């Protein structure tokens, strides 16, 4: 049957649906499809017996439960009778427990969930075939109008059509095992164990309540349900797992060893398993979720790490969306497209949060020495879904305690705490990030720069940075780039620094010095970013003679004599910058410009003393840094901007970035401005909210050097969260300051803050309260099937 013919039968009572996989996602999809149209013939194949299940408890969010309530009140009512609900999260580290409340969880046993769905499918007339392998997918696609593949993370369906679905499966660094304990934790519990082999962690949560008539002194018997039950996941890095000998233990021996390690959390009680095995988490991503009348659902289509919730939750939401789209759309093909369009952004957002969470736990060891409450706050906000503001709303007492420990004065948000770098005291943690304006004439900053930088200085940021200021005419990116290689340019910059210091007292202004290298002699950004000039080109130089793009002008490799000349150009510009009154100087060693080109192995192919190993690739940037530091006033700080990854195979790695930061710190850098990418044209960044901040976080914790975090940080809530969690010292924002030059002032007003961390210019004080606006209703997530 052709897809077009199948599409015509979507709304027909004779529609035949095959579901591969009898997990919660497949069963719920089957029940919904049958409930919405009793005439449908729905068959589920499940290779296991009806009472077989793996894992123990399942967590569902209130939002997901709301969708279930609307879609099928019968299932919702059955779940309501079974759910264990709790609000607290306990974090136990080095013998100290910190509790944060107001979170709201609901869980039940996976086996009971399956029983409820089995009963619902039976009552609706869904045919359930247990202990039965599904027929070949190609045969099902011919015999049925719709085939739903809910066959899990190891989906054979996905593998059979890999060339269509385009799956990517990434295996991660930790080993974990799903176990259970026959008592109910009274909170979601995270416990850290520092052993001789390395750090291990326990994730535990209740999924079954104690029986009302149980007594604590009663010895458990049978399944021990009268004492409740909890899921217990033990997780650790692969190397720790091996060092601890788990690779050589059988299932029962592993269970017993885990029980000993986390005896305090378990109160000395035993753990139990259910065909439990150590495994590594796999993140599954697919380019497509459907093919003809075949569609992927749940773990077959996508996975998200268990530390932020439940794969069951995503699968149930998939089932709801699929059923709704089939009801709302006239044809099968259109319905499957709508299903994927609706779910893909939700899943992508969840997977980004899940990656942040799993990487936090993979690198747990770097946070162990944080103050106890800050450690707890860091753990709670690890995925970036829980933030300072919503945690404050959930548990104001806990959040206030974290702020006090951090050093926030009463009533002061973290972003408005001061920071000292050498002799410079920044009154808050907000930086206006360097942004090229392409509006200079012959390198001279004009009225536009005065208004641009002056407005942002009046806007309340602690530090305002210039764009990359070029050290020579040949070092410009475009003809519109600013420089500091002539007296006239210096006079213009002095005009700007004088304005900032006079009209925005307490705001610091910094200069970023750089040289374009192989990325120079291009058009203005809005005329063609990175495109070569059509005429008036100047010669380019770089570490190696490699053009940025195939159509770019090839650079010449720098000779030793030219390296000396360049170093002197940087020194002269730094000397002028000091006389111009800049408070801070940043050396631009990122984004593929000249100094960055020396650091990356993708752009430095030299065979002399300035190429090869990382130590040699660092040599020239460090020589320039030393020369600049020598003429820059001792009391004024210097920072360095680096690209912590090239987002390309064979380029700079996170390990390299740590060593680069250490090297600059050893030469006197006061902070590292941690950006990423833009080094090679064929990069593949992993964009998302705050996507570059993990690199700053790592450098800060592994080097002890203050860092500036950048990269899609857009809200004051994100700034507070990053600062308070100890992931960065300063946050640099670019586009938000283009959208709102007074971003920091508005952040203070919205938080009701009027302390010394920010000051409204007297002429602007009348605007320090947010104007009233009309009501707006944000788009709501799907919680209903529609009609």
TrEMBL record:
<dbReference type="Pfam" id="PF13450">
    <property type="entry name" value="NAD_binding_8"/>
</dbReference>
<dbReference type="Pfam" id="PF01494">
    <property type="entry name" value="FAD_binding_3"/>
</dbReference>
<feature type="region of interest" description="Disordered">
    <location>
        <begin position="205"/>
        <end position="226"/>
    </location>
</feature>
<feature type="domain" description="NADH:flavin oxidoreductase/NADH oxidase N-terminal">
    <location>
        <begin position="415"/>
        <end position="748"/>
    </location>
</feature>
<feature type="domain" description="FAD-binding">
    <location>
        <begin position="145"/>
        <end position="351"/>
    </location>
</feature>
<dbReference type="Pfam" id="PF00724">
    <property type="entry name" value="Oxidored_FMN"/>
</dbReference>
<dbReference type="InterPro" id="IPR002938">
    <property type="entry name" value="FAD-bd"/>
</dbReference>
<dbReference type="InterPro" id="IPR036188">
    <property type="entry name" value="FAD/NAD-bd_sf"/>
</dbReference>
<dbReference type="InterPro" id="IPR044152">
    <property type="entry name" value="YqjM-like"/>
</dbReference>
<protein>
    <submittedName>
        <fullName>Bifunctional salicylyl-CoA 5-hydroxylase/oxidoreductase</fullName>
    </submittedName>
</protein>
<dbReference type="InterPro" id="IPR001155">
    <property type="entry name" value="OxRdtase_FMN_N"/>
</dbReference>
<dbReference type="InterPro" id="IPR013785">
    <property type="entry name" value="Aldolase_TIM"/>
</dbReference>
<feature type="region of interest" description="Disordered">
    <location>
        <begin position="765"/>
        <end position="787"/>
    </location>
</feature>
């Amino acid at each position: 049957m052709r897809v077009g013919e199948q599409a015509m039968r979507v709304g027909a009572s004779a529609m035949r649906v095959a579901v591969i996989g009898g997990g919660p996602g497949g069963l719920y999809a089957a029940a919904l499809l049958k409930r919405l149209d009793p005439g449908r013939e729905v068959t589920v194949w499940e290779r296991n017996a009806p009472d077989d299940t793996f894992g123990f408890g399942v967590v569902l969010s209130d939002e997901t439960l709301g969708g279930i309530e609307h879609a099928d009140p019968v299932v919702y009512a059955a779940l309501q009778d079974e759910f264990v609900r709790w609000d607290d999260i306990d974090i136990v580290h080095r013998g100290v427990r910190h509790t944060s409340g107001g979170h709201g969880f609901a869980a039940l046993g996976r086996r009971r969930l399956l029983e409820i769905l089995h009963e619902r499918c039976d009552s609706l007339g869904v045919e359930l075939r247990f202990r039965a392998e599904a027929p070949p997918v190609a045969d099902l696609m011919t015999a049925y109008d719709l085939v739903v593949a809910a066959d899990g993370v190891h989906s054979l369906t996905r593998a059979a059509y890999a060339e269509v679905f385009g799956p990517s499966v990434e295996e991660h660094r930790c080993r974990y095992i799903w176990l259970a304990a026959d008592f109910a934790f009274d909170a979601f519990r995270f416990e850290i164990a520092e052993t001789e082999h390395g750090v291990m962690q326990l994730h535990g949560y209740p999924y079954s309540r104690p029986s009302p008539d149980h007594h604590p002194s009663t010895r458990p018997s049978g399944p021990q349900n009268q004492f409740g039950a909890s899921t217990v996941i033990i997780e650790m890095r692969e190397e720790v797992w091996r060092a601890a000998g788990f690779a050589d233990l059988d299932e029962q021996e592993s269970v017993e060893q885990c029980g000993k390690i986390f005896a305090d959390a378990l109160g000395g009680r035993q753990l139990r398993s259910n065909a439990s095995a150590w495994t590594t988490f796999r993140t599954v991503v697919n380019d497509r979720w459907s093919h003809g009348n075949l569609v992927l659902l749940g773990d077959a289509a996508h996975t998200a790490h268990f530390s932020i919730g439940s794969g069951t939750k995503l699968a149930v939401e998939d089932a709801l969306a699929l059923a709704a789209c089939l009801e709302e759309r006239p044809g099968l093909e259109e319905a499957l497209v709508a299903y994927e369009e609706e779910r893909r952004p939700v899943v992508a957002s969840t997977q980004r949060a899940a990656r942040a969470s799993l990487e936090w736990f993979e690198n747990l060891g770097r946070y162990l020495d944080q103050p106890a409450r800050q450690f707890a706050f860091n753990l709670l906000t690890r995925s970036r879904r829980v933030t300072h503001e919503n945690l404050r709303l959930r548990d104001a007492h806990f959040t206030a305690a974290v702020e006090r420990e951090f050093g926030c004065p009463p009533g002061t948000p973290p972003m408005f705490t001061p920071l000292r770098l050498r002799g410079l005291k920044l009154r808050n943690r907000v930086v206006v990030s360097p942004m090229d304006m392409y509006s200079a004439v012959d390198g001279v900053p004009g009225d536009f720069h005065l208004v641009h930088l002056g407005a942002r200085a009046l806007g309340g940021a602690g530090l305002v940075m210039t764009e990359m200021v070029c050290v020579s005419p040949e070092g410009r990116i475009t003809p519109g780039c600013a420089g500091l290689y002539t007296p006239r340019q210096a006079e213009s910059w002095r005009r700007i620094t004088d304005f900032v210091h006079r009209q925005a007292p307490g705001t610091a202004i910094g200069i970023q010095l750089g040289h374009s290298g192989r990325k120079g002699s291009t058009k203005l950004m809005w005329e063609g970013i990175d495109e070569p000039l059509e005429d008036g080109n100047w010669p380019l130089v770089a570490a190696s003679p490699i053009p940025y793009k195939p159509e770019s002008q090839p650079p010449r490799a720098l000779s030793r004599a030219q390296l000396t000349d360049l170093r002197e150009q940087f020194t002269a510009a730094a000397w002028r910058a000091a006389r111009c009154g800049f408070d801070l100087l940043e050396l631009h060693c990122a984004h593929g410009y000249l100094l960055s080109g020396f650091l990356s192995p993708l752009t430095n192919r030299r065979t002399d003393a300035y190429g090869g190993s990382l130590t040699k690739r660092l040599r020239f940037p460090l020589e320039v840094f030393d020369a600049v530091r020598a003429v820059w006033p001792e009391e004024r700080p210097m920072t360095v901007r680096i690209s912590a990854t090239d987002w390309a195979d064979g380029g700079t790695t996170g390990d390299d970035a740590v060593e680069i930061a250490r090297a600059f710190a050893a030469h006197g850098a006061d902070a590292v401005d941690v950006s990423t990418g833009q080094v090679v044209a064929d990069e593949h960044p992993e964009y998302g909210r705050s996507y570059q901040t993990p690199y700053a976080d790592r450098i800060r914790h592994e080097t002890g050097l203050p860092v500036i975090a950048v990269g899609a940080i857009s809200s004051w809530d994100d700034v507070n969260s990053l600062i308070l969690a100890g992931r960065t010292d300063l946050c640099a924002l670019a586009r938000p300051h283009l959208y709102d030059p007074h971003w920091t002032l508005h952040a203070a007003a919205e938080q009701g803050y009027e302390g010394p961390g920010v000051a409204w210019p007297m002429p602007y004080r009348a605007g320090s309260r947010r104007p009233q606006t009309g009501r707006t209703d944000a788009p709501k997530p799907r919680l209903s099937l529609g009609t």
